[in-house]
Amino acid sequence: MTSVKVVNLLQGLAPARSEEVFESLVQQPGFRLERILSWGQVTPEGEWYDQAEDEWVLLLSGAARLLVEGQEAFALLPGDTVLLPAHCRHRVIWTDPAHVTVWLALHYSPEGQAAALVLKPR
Question: What is the mean pLDDT of residues 54-65?
């Protein structure tokens, strides 16, 4: 019989660090779910994320500002999600330095079922 455990993604957080913490929660071929912890970190000036896979992000706690190339920057608050298609250049331009920002990021193959992740913008 398989043992099933309950995990709270907002408990047992690492203490503040000078670098973000990336924790893999589930990984399969073409699919990776990770928790990211930020304490004021941003993408270095002039650098962009340009990933080969689609990324769906849920902000669980804290606050952040994201810049997608060709768009105005936007804020993310707890409960907000964003779908970043493969090769959508983006940068984190601010995270709350006073409190941990907890992200849940799902990376998956662009051939996957992206339609299931489309949510209405607020």
Answer: 97
